[in-house]
Amino acid sequence: MESVSNSSSQLNVKQYEPTLVAPAEETEKGLYFLTNLDQNIAVIVRTIYCFKSESKGNEDAVKIIKDALSKVLVPYYPVAGRLTISTEGKLIVDCTGEGAVFVEAEADCTIEEIGDTTKPDPVTLGKLVYDIPGARNILEMPLLVAQVTKFKCGGFVLGLCMNHCMHDGIAAMEFVNSWSETARGLPLKVPPVLDRSLLKARNPPKIEYEHKEFAQIEDISETSELYKEEMHYSSFCFDPEKLEQLKKKAMEDGVLEKCTTFEALTAFVWKSRTQALRMQPDQQTKLLFAVDGRSRFEPPIPKGYSGNAIVLTNSICNASEQLENPLSFTVGLVQKAINMITDSYMRSAIDYFEATRARPSLSATLLVTTWSRLSFHTVDFGWGEALFSGPVALPEKEVILFLSHGKERKSINVLLGLPASAMKIFEELMQI
After folding, report:
1. 158-197 pLDDT tens trace
2. What are the strands of the beta sheet with 91-95, ordered from one edge?
3. How far apart are CA 429 and CA 418, in angstroms?
4. How confident is the model at residue 2 (pLDDT cuts 50, 70, 90)?
5. Interatomic CA distance for residues 149 and 158, integer angstroms
6. CA 197 to each of CA 85, 194, 309, 349: distance values in angstroms, whole numbers, following the listed order
7. Domains of the chain listed by start with CATH number
8. What's an example of a GO molecular-function annotation for this chain (predicted)?
9. pLDDT digit string (tens) for 34-58?
10. Is 224 exposed, middle or buried (0-12, 13-18, 19+ CB in 10 A)?
11. Which residue, 95, 87, 101, is CA-closest to 196?
């Protein structure tokens, strides 16, 4: 048994020996194809789900969740396999049926004592997910690691490490919801569609667009020096009123005909971050964000597609253009980036990777990830919906995350990390 503790934080968690949970029945073996959209984001995503019921304690939580995992790994059998490298030098899954890693753990406090779960806290929240000791890269990490931590109050937390190459946000939530439906003895609402050949590259590849998402920008503002400072993490809540204000601000000069919440908020945080990082006027700055391609591909991707069907779009401008123009300018750039995503653009992006094996570059870049539309809140293993669910940490320093917030989920929490001095400026700019 290993005890994870940290003097700066009150949370003390005892983790028991990890076990493997294999699929409940014999499943298909062999190699399972991953598309180029899966290759691009092979990062580990750590999330937690907190549960507590008035009528039911946590005595059976481990058994119920573990048994349901074994059952759900039958339709989702690739998740029970291991990543390896194909003959083409790409990631591929070897469907060994080894199973997911499962860890039981106990905390010495109540769920309420975890503290503020609305902002990323890799130290405290990190104790609620299990890291494979000695794993040096993603090939040495299982595709799914689950930890169930029981708290003294009768509540428990499910902490997950999942590899993004297996599912994008929508598919990941379909998997977790399927797992929770299985725990409640229900049939799957959305059975998985495992055939990823729908999104394979064309032969020969046909690159029809420029794909600036891969552009390497020179950091003439030396922001990398700034990032040597201590990192500060924070979350900013935009309630419906504030979001409405932002949209009005974006449209007040009459340049734009319409503007969505996402467009206004993305433009506002991009512009504010450029200012907070004190970028030089002629510093190019890039925005990247994912657009769900499910309905944009022709024909549309079937419901339940379990891989990555998101495509990165981009916009690049000089810092001075952002800072000298009203908000409508930056919103216009965001709108152009969204409109760029068509079937032919997405197919071209898939083929671009086929031909170049390039990875999106993050220098002088902001990557916005939207989780506000994901069905986190419907996860119910039999203890009611999660009191809280969300990320443990941000995957990269360039990432800003949008999460829905509040009972009605109409507010958006913006989560980010910045060097201490930049965060001070950013906080002031958020006072709208």
Report:
1. 999 999 999 999 999 999 999 999 999 999 999 999 999 9
2. 30-32, 91-95, 82-85
3. 14
4. very low
5. 7
6. 18, 9, 12, 16
7. 13-199 (3.30.559.10), 212-372+409-430 (3.30.559.10)
8. acyltransferase activity, transferring groups other than amino-acyl groups
9. 999 999 888 899 999 999 999 999 9
10. exposed
11. 95
Total H helices, total E strands in the chain? 10, 17
Confidence of residue 9 (pLDDT cuts 50, 70, 90): low
Q: Is the peptide bond before 133 cis (omega within 30 degrees of 0)?
A: no
> Is 0.90 surpassed by the pTM of this model?
yes
Read off the pLDDT of each residue in 237-243 and give the average, rounded to a whole number: 96
* Alpha carbons within 13 A on the beta-carbon side of 142: 24
Q: Mind telling me the catalytic residues?
A: 164, 380
Secondary structure class of 101 (helix, strand, coil): strand
Task: Dig out the tokens for 195 from the structure.
Answer: 């055939």
Structure tokens at 194: 């495992």
Q: Are 352 and 345 in contact (CB under 8 A)?
A: no
> Quick one: how far is CA 19 from the chain centroid?
26
